Amino acid sequence: MADQSTDLPLRVPAQSHIDGEWTRLGGETFVVTNKADDSELIEVTDATPDDADAAMEGAWEGFLAWKATPPRERSNVLRRAWELINERADEIALLMSLEMGKALPDAKAEVGYANGFLLEYSERATRIEGRHAFHETHGGRILTQKDPVGPCVFVTPWNFPLAMGTRKIAPALAAGCSIVVKPPQQTPLTMLALVGILLEAGVHPKAVSVLTTTNSRETTSKLIEHPRTAKLSFTGSTPVGRNLAEQGGKALLRMSMELGGNAPFIVFDDADVPSALEGAKIAKFRNGGQACTSANRFLVHESVAEEFTKGMVEIADGLVLGPGAQEGTTLGPMIDDNAVEKVRELVQDAVDRGATVAAGGNDKADGRYYPGTVLTNVPQDARIMHEEVFGPVAPIVTFSTEEEAIRMANDTEYGLVAYAYTNDMARTLRVSRDIESGMLGMNTGLVSNPAAPFGGVKDSGFGREGGPEGFEEYLQTRYVAMPDPRD
To answer: pLDDT (tens digit, 9 = 90+) per residue, 175-189?
Structure first.
């Protein structure tokens, strides 16, 4: 049995899980901190790049066993994991809040969203189908079947430590793949807890591995380069994604890349402004703005700009800064000092170029606690209009025509998600045709759904997670040619 925490809200294995066992490996550890005050939560295994080889060899054995497991059994295991997470939802949410800093209401919402992937793919595990057809010129048959792609390497981010895990893990396990997860150094505890739950639910012990490490680059490279690796899925920044995609391309891996974003939030002149404000609150301030789907630029028609800006200032001023786990907190600390510094730089750059601070701002920041901030009169050449802010800052600019709004929205190398508010159906169809993004929220500030395909275009990556499209990422087609037996 692994060493486990005693003071955390949930008993968390403090070791990596490799080749079917919890192991301390070389004996080195690193500290995971409470992001509210930098106090120590627990020490966990610091795996080395050499440990990646053992993880992948074990994953190959696990794959051979897990893919032979009947689909109904795989389905039942995922369903059992869903039940266990439901039973421990409050404890998991508190654990996430401590290690990542997010406000407890956001953490609880993430548990529900993340768990939806286990339920979604427990129901798809028994629906892996091929097709049958007659050859067009003679009596032979064409058969196709779907097989699991093989051992998968998952590199997950710190901002949604549970959801970004289940979104990858659930379809992979449902398809019959084995997995090796490399969670981030900042937030490994939620992933360790999830892997423990999966094993408790009945996943083959060698089908699920997790490597916690401070040497992310070299360990990930070892996993990618291992000859047993069949697929790589990464969620994170575009620069890191480019490097990993280059490595994965050399190995001819199947890949999914969910990368950065610069989401526009468009409010047209005919929009229901109160509804748009509700959506903006979610799209901007959920998870403290530390989300790839976070609205990064607010493009507001000049006729409703005053009303919308006033509402955004009220929302920002109403956010309660504090430790994520503290009752009443709606905006927790940012993940680290570097994250705060980047937000400060982007806000200062905008102000230096003529923007006005309507709420919050650098003067009201305190350590890792950055307030909800609204900027107005933001010029197009401000860095914040082109770089992902990844914080609770809402820059507002105005437009006068629909064509101008679409042009401004598409003026970015990113294309993950966009949001638009309008009551004109014809305009809705035009926006959905012309916007350059993999996802579009029409009159909603939340697009994520376990049954829907999540992913972007342009520099926001490729591949999809969620829904039937996300399931296909873990299946490959085998074609079987069968001559007519009468010939």
So the answer is: 999 999 999 999 999
